[in-house]
Design a protein that fits this description.
By secondary structure, the protein is an alpha/beta fold. 45% of the residues lie in helices and 14% in strands. It has ten helices and eight strands. The strands form two sheets. It has a five-stranded parallel beta sheet, sandwiched between helices. Strands 3-4-5 form a three-stranded antiparallel beta sheet, with helices on one face. Strand 4 and strand 5 form a beta hairpin. The structure holds adenosine-5'-triphosphate and the ligand Nc1ccn([C@H]2C[C@H](O)[C@@H](COP(=O)(O)O)O2)c(=O)n1. The site of the ligand Nc1ccn([C@H]2C[C@H](O)[C@@H](COP(=O)(O)O)O2)c(=O)n1 has 13 residues, from helix 3 and helix 5.
């Protein structure tokens, strides 16, 4: 009898079919959401969706159609966004520089088949995107795109890893509005000064230095006039935090069930390993980075 039971157990499928695992990463500007989310997705073999890039595509559409940031002019934008074909793909990025180093893949964004990865980070888009992202109907249209892109990315990932596939999405309202039932919600935070220093470094590494850089990551806080100091950038980031927290539609909030990670004094590697291991723990698979207990 025992032998029979054992044989039946051996024949039983190992993994019970389950919904794919969703990791939602939210937080203020320059807290490290997108770089962390991409690295975590790579480490777990998950899909990745940069939700900010969808708002940026909506903004590019507005600019190309000559739609200004006046609310009445934006009335038709939500319909345009709903009809657009927007795709966000993860690209195998630079190889790690040494053994054990973290891979942060690049992201490619397609708007109606055109590669707009650079165009959506132009100074014009940076200037308009916050206004576009505060529009209720545009947010509803983007929400539908976010969910359908995530479903596609999840099914690709689960086709490769049937027992533990999933998707990582980063933004401002992923754990609160887009995926309120996400299996793991992270709220990534850091002091305004730490974020300003990172932004400064980002701008410097992109060529012209903070004073003249046109495209510094996603830096919307960069005014047309050049920044003279890290303190200026910190003040701009605080202004943006205020706008994000106080806007009417989907304001930036910490979901009650989110794990808050303040990475002010944390290395990039540690936060990536910690989040990946939290996901593994919740999926019931062994942790890989035992030193990274949070
Ligand atoms: N723990 C960390 N220590 C130092 N630098 C970090 C850390 N985490 C992320 N960074 C760096 O901070 C910079 C900003 O990160 P990232 O672009 O991922 O932020 P973000 O939150 O997605 O920004 P935004 O909201 O504007 O899109 C990047 O250069 C990233 O490599
Ligand atoms: N889930 C999201 C993602 C982004 N936004 C807003 C915030 C920014 O104004 C804009 C672009 O985001 P970024 O690429 O800089 O991360 O979109 C949002 O409201 N909700």
């Amino acid at each position: 009898m025992l032998c029979r039971a054992a044989a039946v157990l051996r024949r039983a499928p190992r993994a019970v079919p389950r919904r794919a695992f969703t990791v939602a990463i939210d937080g203020p500007a320059a807290s490290g959401k997108s770089s962390t989310a991409r690295a975590v997705a790579h480490e777990l073999g998950f899909g990745y969706i940069d939700s900010g890039s969808i708002y940026r595509c909506a903004t590019l559409l507005a600019l190309r159609q000559g739609i200004s940031d006046a609310a009445e002019d934006r009335a038709g934008l939500a319909a345009l966004v709903g009809q657009a074909d927007i795709d966000v793909r993860i690209r195998p990025g630079p190889r790690p520089a040494g053994p054990g180093q973290i891979v942060v893949p690049d992201v490619q964004v397609l708007l109606d088949g055109e590669d707009v990865s650079r165009a959506i980070r132009s100074p014009e888009v940076n200037r308009l995107v916050a206004a576009v992202a505060s529009d209720g109907p545009v947010r509803d249209a983007v929400l539908r795109i976010q969910r359908s892109l995530a479903a596609a990315a999840e099914s690709l990932s689960t086709a490769r890893h049937p027992a533990h596939g999933g998707v990582v999405m980063d933004g401002r309202d992923i754990g609160t509005a887009v995926f309120p039932n996400a299996e793991l919600k992270i709220y990534l935070d850091a002091s305004a000064m730490a974020r300003a220093i990172r932004r400064w470094d980002q701008m410097s590494s992109q060529g012209n230095g903070p004073a003249g850089s046109a495209d510094a990551g996603n830096a919307q806080e960069q005014p047309p006039a050049a920044h003279s100091s890290v303190e200026d950038i910190a003040r701009e980031l605080e202004k943006r935090d205020y706008t994000d927290i106080n806007r009417k539609h989907s304001p930036l909030r910490i979901a009650p069930d989110a794990v808050v990670i303040d990475n002010t004094n944390m290395t990039f590697e540690r936060q990536v390993h910690a989040i990946a291991d939290l996901a593994r723990e919740r999926m019931g698979v062994p942790r890989r980075h035992d030193d990274d207990d949070m």
